[in-house]
Input
Amino acid sequence: MNKHQTFLGPVQETTPVKFSDPLPQEVDVVIIGGGVIGLFAALYMRRSGLSVVVCEKGRIACEQSSRNWGWIRQHGRDRAELPIMMEATRLWEEVDRETGGRTGFKRGGICYLASTKERLEKRAEWLDIAKECQLESRLLTKAEVDKLIDRDKRGGDAHEWVGATHTPNDARAEAWQAIPAIAEMAHDEGVVIIENCAVRALDVSGGALKGVVTEHGIIRTSQCVLAAGAWSSLFAKRHGITIPQMSVRSTVCQTEPLPEFYGGNAADENIAFRRRNDGGYNLAGGARSDCYIGRDAFRNFWKYLPVAAAHLPDITFRLSAPKGFPDAWSTKRDWAADEVSPFEETRVLNPAPNMKQVAKLQENFSKIFPSAGKPKIRHAWAGMIDAMPDIVPIVDRVPDMPGLIIATGMSGHGFGIGPGFGKILCEMVLGKTPGHDMQRFRFSRFSDGSKLEVGPDI
Ligand SMILES: Cc1cc2nc3c(=O)[nH]c(=O)nc-3n(C[C@H](O)[C@H](O)[C@H](O)COP(=O)(O)OP(=O)(O)OC[C@H]3O[C@@H](n4cnc5c(N)ncnc54)[C@H](O)[C@@H]3O)c2cc1C
Output
């Protein structure tokens, strides 16, 4: 693979290994997981003078970070996430410049379309948060929507929206390219990156972190960031640390190139679409997802009840996950540090897309853009979203294990905010007080009796 290869699809197990640095004996920080969170954290830590290794069990960005829609969304964010997200958007612009435009970053805006007045009123409630944070979001009338998403071009019998909420400076990036490009830049600046390197366990002595045990040997360290996406809860549980995380399948597809109706990202009740830089669209069913019942899903049932009730029509429950998934019934929950772990057994979590959903997306796309006809699908894929009961992540130190920081449960919107949390993780490792209020993301919130406050959007 040449240095600046454009990836043709979500990263797979067949994608050639690109990063195979020798295992260091000792570093300042070990990062478990080469997704958007781990890589941005590594980049900023290295820029602060720390020695950092990123251990990735499969390939860089092989799971959620190359499978997402590519939305860099401030719109609809939780109050506590929004200031971090506003900074993250600025950082995306910066890294896009630094990588010579290879992330595909573009500010095309994000629009939440409503087909009924009630839906529009519900959407508009969030605008108070935007105003508080001085974000340029506002309500659009039907006439303004028709202008933004070219009504004449859409076709005579196109679906009508009554209005929308809109953030014009929201953005997108091409996920397949962006994270590998960030990894290359971080590597060029001195981050050690090792693919095919699962971390099996933490090496803990006297309650404190001494190192991590990888499939290739031990790395000594006093600081570790667990950014393992859908696998974080399984990893943590082995050490008696409970993260009430659940992973749900979300399907995406990409169309062949089509006329430009709108250059940004938009979603209504039935479909989410965003213009791609190659002239096609990424399509998805909004919050529609498949939830596989496993031991963790069972255990956490009550914690998830509020969010499940709010999204019930969007969720399909399935009795068991395929073999090798983090919460499959047959997945090992405990293993010795010198034995093959579940992380090596599934190098790349690559769920099959839900093709019924893809067919529905084609149909829904032609309802809103009848002039385009039924769109041809170039690729369909799926990813497992690591959701939390309140749909905001944990980004915090673990009180009972000095040295361990958890950064996980990004709940379907961690791509956009990646650089923001990356900066915060760097500050935490350096022992500085992060520049944002981190209360909302604390580890203890599921066990300290706090009332669960569900965030506004997945
Ligand atoms: C279909 C879909 C659409 C989405 N759309 C958007 C969007 O438009 N905008 C947005 O902001 N977000 C979106 N998201 C969410 C976003 O992609 C994720 O929140 C984000 O990528 C999470 O990044 P991460 O680094 O935490 O996890 P991941 O990207 O999942 O990375 C974790 C990595 O850790 C590795 N790993 C796990 N265990 C170990 C171990 N023991 N040792 C070594 N490595 C390990 C895994 O192989 C994986 O590569 C979407 C997600 C999906 C699935």
In short: The longest strand covers residues 377-387. The chain has a mean pLDDT of 94.
